[in-house]
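Quick one, probably user error.
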């Protein structure tokens, strides 16, 4: 449970907030949660004492999670799928001047490194699903759906250089997986095809080999300096 002071960082210093999850993916159904994610800027003087600001905060609202700006940028530079999807969510709820500059840097975080991180994450999660299936006798279909969504997003990102969060016309095929209407061997086959297509796409991808770390660091330093003078 986050402390009241941590919650005040979210309430008073948020620079960017969005909705992620099924509602941003275009996969929401009746009863779907509203997952909110955000970025807060801890005031620079709060780093001058022994006790440092938190790297992330849960709450204060249900289904709400926020990162401190530096932590968020670090995760995005490592092509963390969940963080990159926040930056590309079509459902932005708030962005101040700092948040708008962060959004303007979206392309600086994208690179061919997404191939490794997205696929490695998906394959790790698939292994967990299969282990659970051996214990339970049936897979958990909702995570299986999201793995297909993630691999599709990865393939298309590598092909086009753009990260599109909304699944568009894939909504119904993906929801059929969630409902358990697609046999597990077919789901595994689709995953394997998507991994192979991502492997092929990365070779000719328009994305740079790595993210523009210097550009992001310049933004972070300028933001910290401005906070110190405030």
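Nope, works fine. Designed sequence:
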């Amino acid at each position: 449970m986050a402390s009241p002071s941590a919650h005040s960082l979210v309430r008073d210093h948020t620079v960017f907030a969005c909705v992620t999850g099924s509602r941003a993916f275009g996969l929401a159904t009746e009863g779907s949660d509203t997952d909110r994610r955000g970025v807060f800027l801890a005031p620079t003087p709060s780093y001058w004492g022994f006790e440092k600001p938190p790297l992330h905060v849960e709450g204060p609202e249900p289904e709400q999670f926020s990162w401190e700006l530096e932590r968020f940028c670090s995760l995005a530079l490592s092509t963390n799928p969940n963080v990159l999807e926040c930056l590309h969510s079509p459902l932005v709820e708030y962005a101040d001047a700092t948040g708008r500059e962060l959004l303007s840097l979206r392309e600086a975080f994208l690179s061919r490194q997404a191939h490794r991180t997205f696929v490695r994450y998906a394959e790790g999660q698939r292994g967990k699903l299969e282990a659970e299936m051996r214990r339970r006798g049936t897979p958990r279909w909702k995570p299986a759906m999201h793995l297909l969504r993630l691999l599709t997003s990865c393939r298309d990102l590598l092909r086009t250089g753009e990260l599109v969060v909304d699944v568009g016309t894939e909504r119904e095929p993906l929801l059929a997986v969630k409902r358990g209407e697609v046999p597990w061997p077919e789901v595994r086959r689709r995953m394997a095809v998507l991994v192979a297509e991502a492997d092929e796409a990365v070779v000719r991808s328009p994305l740079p080999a790595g993210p523009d770390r210097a550009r992001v660091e310049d933004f972070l330093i300028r933001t910290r300096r401005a906070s110190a003078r405030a």
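Residues 177 and 183 are 8 Å apart (CA to CA).
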